Every structure is written in structure tokens, then in C-alpha cells.
Amino acid sequence: MNSPGTAVVVRDLEKRFGDFVAVNRVSFEVKRGEIFGFLGPNGAGKSTTIRMLCGILIPSGGAGTVAGLDILTRQEEIKANIGYMSQKFSLYEDLTVEENIDFYSGIYRIPAEKKQARKEWVLQMAGLKEHLHSRTGTLSGGWKQRLSLGCAILHEPPVIFLDEPTSGVDPISRRQFWDLIYELAGKGVTVFVTTHYMDEAEYCDRIALIYRGELIAMGAPADLKTEKLREDSIAPSMEDLFVSLIEAHDRDARPQEEVRR
Amino acid sequence: MLVKEFIHIFRDPKMKAVIFLVPVIQSMIFGYAVTTDVKHVATAVFDLDNSQASRELVARFVRSGYFDVVARVQNEGQVRVLLDRGRARAVLRFNQGFEREMLAGRTARLQVLLDGADSNSAGIVLEYSARIAAEFSRTVLIERSARLAGAFRPPGGVDLQARAWFNENLESRNFYVPGVIAILVMLITLMLTSMAVVREKEVGTMEQILVTPITPGEFIAGKTLPFALIGFVDVIVITAIAVFWFEVPIRGNLLLLFLATALYLMTTLGIGLFISTISQTQQQAMMSTFFFYMPAILLSGFIFPIANMPESIQWLTYLNPLRYFLIVIRGIFLKGIGISVLWPQLLALAVMGLLTLRAAAGRFHKTMA
Ligand SMILES: Nc1ncnc2c1ncn2[C@@H]1O[C@H](COP(=O)(O)OP(=O)(O)OP(=O)(O)O)[C@@H](O)[C@H]1O
Ligand SMILES: [Mg+2]
Q: What is the pLDDT of residue A166?
């Protein structure tokens, strides 16, 4: 389960909130340096899965490793080896850009001699040099997202988790953001990203579709399309692909549900 | 973490006001308002006798400084109106024949009608009246016996000379202002800490923090030390107001006061943090803070002496950090007593401070839900 080529491995990962099963026995692997897209409609369980991988939610069942560390026992070590961008913008809006960066450098324990270099790298990457002393709350959406990403990777983690990093951001900023993701992946960083945008799914090396807590499809975007093409013999768009996968899943699942009742 | 908390506080102008202006204003208001001294009681005189003796007695009431004659009334109806409207809180009533009775050697009657709605002050007014009347009759007696030319020596009588130690003039301000320091600092530190963590939960920054290698200890330190410092500054500011403005004497050791403050702040910060770990929203935190704060004040001896409470409630007050700190701060201000007397209180505060901080740290997990 711990081969050197994989960044994330999960087996039968499960999360219940009371009776409600938010993530239902999900298994997958993410290779090192891969951009792995996690797709699914609202409430599918994407954020819940990411939170379990990041060590802030305790799984109800199953097992897994992130960067070779067990998600059930070594959460704190995992936290030092990953970057995380939560779905909600979560930098301090009353702090300036620089203060936010300094704050995260502090809690990620960036050694003093590297601090300045990392800060400059982030500012450069996010294009925020002129806004060093602006309050973060006054920045526009695209800048905020890039700054969040910057703060999440100050400590140069080998794996990063991005939960809907581009929601509510204009198309140009989204494109810029994806350029950054590619740049990181090019350096060997594993990127685990969730999204609602179908065009973004195409940018991923591999995608997994999660629906009502269950993993219903996984593979390279092109392969998934080819499979579908074989059934219907019309070239599907990504969107068509997902809608039909979900519908097919509902057809299969409904009889079972009735049996259960 | 530390730097960030300070920036949060100082960047928010409302926060700044809460921290520095509020204690100043409140200690001023409390300093003037919180006093149980009864002085200048609005008094009406209903004198049906209008004799030399009755006028002399009224004059004595006025000279005492406790009574101000605000009205002279002629009939029962007016008495009622004055008391009902609160224009007078006491009425001195002399019936016809007051002087005649006295001259005849019988006991003359002075009636004192009181507004008993505030039973505490009414009791005090009554006591003053009794004292003044008793003194009056004593002098009358002495005069009269003197007139009888030595045929009768006045009885010695007992003159009660009460002298209150520590607060010689029984100035209630001296008693209350140190207490005000304690309750204001508690309010401010409780509010700040309980809000500090919950705000991060609400805004969503908490989740981001949880996914970092920060240790619970660092987090708690970041969320308490800035507020501890603010608590200290507030104590110093209010103490300065107490000493230089209200001229409350400070007889004890300032260093001891600071030590006690440090221990006390540990308890309030610990409780504030604890509240913030069990609350999800700022409203919840606010409610919980007041749930704790109101009984803490009522059961601290700040207003109502603990010795007058039912025994079961007295036991409850042992859980109240404010109770101990009040004893300490009043002891230091008024009595100038030192650690040799106050150590049990200091120990209690230290234990409670450690326990609450531990409890808060224990409740703080680096996972959600
Ligand atoms: N703490 C919780 N307690 C109870 N239910 C929860 C909790 N967190 C999430 N859920 C439920 O679990 C389900 C999955 O939530 P999750 O946030 O993982 O969805 P998501 O795929 O990220 O959706 P979105 O695209 O809206 O972000 C939802 O139905 C949600 O209501
Ligand atoms: Mg989500």
C-alpha cells in the first residue's frame, strides 16, 4: 500500500455523520506528481474526503496514507507535509498580504534564513508584489485565491489539496491559477483538486467522479470519454459524460434502495 | 501567532475602544455610582407642633449631613404625594404637643416616615435618625438635670464610638472601586478570548489553521498571551484611575497585586477559551459568557456579602475566581495585607487558573466535529 510512486492511497474510506453516510467506502490512489481531479455535484462528499486526508476529520472506517503517512495515526506529520486550501477563502482579511504570509511562515516553521526567499517567491507567483501592504480583504477574487495557494505551499509540501480553488473567480484568473497548478505539478508536486467546472476536469491527468459519497467513475478524462463513446457512438462533452454517468448510477442504485426499505 | 492576534486587535478600531476606553469610562461611572453611602437624603418636614424643640431637632438632622430638607408640608396628603413621587425619601413628622410632652417630662414622639422601597438605604436612614434622636434626648436630659442644680446627676450612659478599621470613614467607594477593577477585567478578558477562537471558526480560518503543524499549546498561547497583556494594561489603567482620581488608598504591595492579577487572568482566560471551544458561533459565545458572568458577579461578594448567603450557595462561591480575587484586591488596597494572609486565595486562583487552562487545552482538538 505504500509504494514510493504514490502520494495518496485510500482503501474503503468511509465517513458517517450520525446515520448519514457522507463518504461511502471510497478507494483510490494518486501517483506522485499527478494532477488528480475530484469531481462531483454539491454535497457529494468531496470536502469531507479531503478533510479526512488532511487529518482534520477522523474517518469512520477504512484506511489510507498521504505522503506515505497513515491518515489514522500520523495526522500531525501529514499536516507538515501537505498544503491545503479550503473551499472557503480563509486568510485573515484584516491582515495585509505580507502579514498573512508572515503568519503562515511562522506556523509552518519556515527557517528564518528561508523566510524572505519564500515570501518573495509567493509574491512573485501570485503577482502580488505591489499589494504587499494591502489589506487582504480588499483584494479581488483571483488574487485572493493565488495568495491562499501561496500561503498553503510556503513550506514546499510534496502534496497539496485544493478544495474548489477556483469557485467564484473569473475565467482569466482561473486560467492563471491552472497555470500555477501545472507549474507545481511540473516540479513533481502532487495536486489533489476538487472542482465543479467541467473544463477544469479536462486539465487533470486523472479524474474521479464522486456522487452521493460513492466513487462512480475514475480514469484519465480521455479514457472515460472513449468508454462512453463506445456505448453511444457520439463524441460526448465532459458535461454529457458526467450527467450520463450519474443517471446510470441512479438507475442501478434505485432498485437496491427499494430492497433496503 | 502572537503578532497576528495583536494586529487583529489594533486594526479593529471598535476593538481598541472596547479594550481601552470602556474600562476607563466604566470605572468612572462605577466609581461614582456604586456607592451605598446614604447621604443627603431628601427629607420633608411635617411639623404640626412648630415649636422650639421641634425646630431644634430638625436642625440637628440637617447638621448631621445625612438629611436635606427639601419641603415643608402641612397635611397628610402632601406627605403621600412626596413619598409616592420619590421627591422625598424620608419625612419627619412632629405631632402637636411635641414640645409640651417633652417639657412635661414625658416621652415626645417623632415619627420618621421612610420610602422603604430601597430597604437597604431605608435601614441606614432609620439608624441615623435613631442616633440623632437619641443624642437629642440625651442633651435635653443633661440640660434639664443641670437646671435642677445638681440634685440629680445624669446617668453616665454608653456612648457607642464605632471605629471602622481599614476604611476609616466607611467610604463605600474605597470598598467598591477595587472590586470594579476585578469585574471589568473579567468582562474584557472573557469576551476577548471567547470571541477570538469562535470568530476564526465562523470565518473559516480555523479550518486552515487546523491543517498546519501548529501545536495546541502554541495555539492556546497565541490566543491567551495578548489578552493577558491587555488585561494587565487594563488593571494598571483602572488602578491609576482609582488611586489618582478617586483617591482610593492603596496600602499593600503593588507587585503582589500584579502577581494576583496574573493568576486571576489565568482563570478568566481559561474560562473564556473553554467557552470558545464549546461554542460554534459568536452569539453562542456571547450568551455563554453572560451565563457565566452574571452569577460570577452576584456570587462574588462584590455587592452582596457572601456571609449573608444561604450555606449551599456559599459553597458555590468557592468555585468563583472572582470571589478570591476580590478578597485579594480589597485586602491589598484597603488593608495592605500581604502574602502571609492572602496565600490561600492566591493558591486557589493558581489552581483554578491551571485547571481551566488545561481544560480548555484539552477541549481543543486539531480535528473538526
Ligand atoms: N459536520 C457535518 N455534520 C453532518 N453532515 C455533514 C458534515 N459535514 C458535511 N456533511 C454532509 O456531508 C455531505 C457531503 O459534504 P461535503 O462538504 O463533503 O460535500 P462537497 O462534495 O464538498 O459539496 P460542495 O460541492 O457543496 O462543496 C453533505 O450532504 C453535507 O451536508
Ligand atoms: Mg465542498
A: 86
Higher pLDDT, A157 or B314: A157
A211 touches A246 (CB < 8 A): yes
Protein residue with least CA distance to atom 2, ligand 1: A17
**Is residue B369 within 8 Å of B210, Cβ to Cβ?**
no
Quick one: cell of A101?
Answer: 504570509
Per the CB < 8 A criterion, the answer to whether B93 and B46 are in contact is: yes
Q: Where are the domains of chain B?
A: 2-35+171-368, 41-149
Q: Which residues of B touch A91 (CB under 8 A)?
A: 205, 208
Distance CA A73, CA B207 (A): 19
- The predicted pLDDT at position A259 comes to 45
Out of A51, A79, A95, the one facing B368 most closely (by C-beta) is A51
Which homologous superfamily does the CATH classification assign to the domain defined by A1-66+190-261?
P-loop containing nucleotide triphosphate hydrolases (3.40.50.300)
Residue A168 touches chain B, beta carbons under 8 Å: no
- pLDDT tens profile A69-121: 999 998 889 999 999 998 888 888 888 888 888 888 888 888 888 889 999 98
Amino acid at B68: D
- Kind and range of the H or E run holding B14: helix B13-16
Q: Which of A179, A106, A193, A101 is nearest to A142 (CA)?
A: A179
- Please state the φ and ψ torsions of residue B91, each to the nearest 5 degrees: -130, 130
d(CA A24, CA B338): 65
Q: Which residues of A touch B8 (CB under 8 A)?
A: 92, 94-95
List, for residues A205-255, the tens digit of each pLDDT value: 999 999 888 898 898 988 887 777 666 666 667 777 777 777 777 777 665
How buried is B55 (Cβ within 10 angstroms: 0-12 exposed, 13-18 middle, 19+ buried)? middle
Instruction: Write the pLDDT tens digit of every residue in B219-242.
Output: 888 888 888 888 888 888 888 888
Q: What is the b/e burial string over B1-17, where b = at least 16 CB atoms within 10 angstroms of the residue's CB?
A: beebbebbbeeeeebee
Name the superfamily (CATH) of residues B41-149: abc type-2 transporter like domain (3.40.1710.10)
User: Distance between CA B94 and CA B101 in Å, rounded?
Assistant: 12
B189-216: pLDDT as tens digits: 888 888 888 888 888 888 888 888 888 8
Which ligand sits closest to the CA of A17? Answer: 1
On whether the pTM is more than 0.80, the answer is no
Domain ranges of chain A: 1-66+190-261
| Alpha carbon of A113: minimum distance to chain B alpha carbons (Å) | 19
